[in-house]
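Not sure how to ask, but would you mind making up any protein sequence you like and the tokens describing how it folds?
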Amino acid sequence: MGLSREDVDSFYYGFSNEVVWPLFHDLQTRCRFEPEYWKSYRRVNGLFARAVSRYTRAEDFVWVHDYQMIPVASMLRSSGVKRNCVFFLHIPFPPPDIFLKLPWREELLKDFLEYDFVGFQTMRDRRNFTDCLRALIPDWRVSGRGPVATVSSGGRRIRVAAMPISIDYRSFRDMAKSARVSRILKDLKRQLPREKIAIGVDRLDYTKGIPQRIRAFGEALRSFPELRERITFIQIVVPSREDVPAYHELKEEIERLVSSVNGEFSTPGWVPVHYMYKSIPREELVAYYRLADIALVTPLKDGMNLVAKEYCACQVDDDGVLILGEFAGAAAQMHRGAILVNSYDIQGMAKAINEAVNMPVEKRKGRMRRLRAGIRRQNVFWWVDNYLRASTGKALVDFPETDMAPVFHALIRRSPESQEG
């Protein structure tokens, strides 16, 4: 199965990233509701459904992920293929007043209902989904309390759940303690003056709130002059979707703001904002996490945001402050240890930066210990295990790595690496 350039443009860059992505992040003014995008989205999902049908068996468990693939189960059923299909949405699900703006709202909502189990990041996302059901397809009933609820109509029943995703805590913690990361960290400390370091790490995207964050850092320096030459902000931006005009414009805006803050506040020997536009190797990224006294994770809207969890996992000395936007899914789990902010509130974020810089060491450590303990308990393996138990009645250990679906064997046989000996 191959996708044409036109398919990629209309299915991925078009419907997935110019309709679903902004709409589900409450940024409907950025949507382009092109009918051809919708047609391509359905057609390409039909191709994926055909591949699933070809490479799976009736008894297989098919786990579909994220907004690009919502119609896969519907496409399978419409072609008469029976599979046990479950779904997980990694991005937020919008409230009815946003979702109802979608021209194909009922069709897309019905696509979710073709799965046997649908997982969302937070209770808010699940509630938004069921509220949309009540508004658009009222013959479906919602029952049950707790993380997993049941949605039913006639003889059809599916379960919908709030199951926040996580990270491999141990992997990040062990890497943060490694000799390699320690050497990189030592080099970074030599290059940067030893005032407080704040960090932001984001993929280039308008949902991440990067311009607002840079403006807030400038406002902190303006409102609290004593912070000048005491704190340096490192903003790492990983390139993404550079061919899309909106992302190119965002990059230019970020660069203008960085220049503006540095032009206003720089002094000999001190540059307030260090801006890096590139991908960072994982060990180097972990070293930056360890270097930072403060992490600024302030998206305008995010399904979860794993940077917040990665930063905390790497604070092996239990020291550091997380400033977390309340519109990130992670806020539901991490609100007791983080400083929560409204990512649209420039002055509020500036005050949070000042609070973080001046937070007493014991308070910092107590908060970070609480955050790290939560991530350690609810790591990515906990998430997978709970998802499998809730959706299939099986545990993670019931799915050995050696028992791969036929599609993986086919891909391994075809891959160039497998031909190199």
Observations:
- The two ends are 26 Å apart (CA to CA).
- The chain has two domains: 5-165+381-393, 169-377.
- Residues 407-421 have pLDDT under 50 and may be disordered.
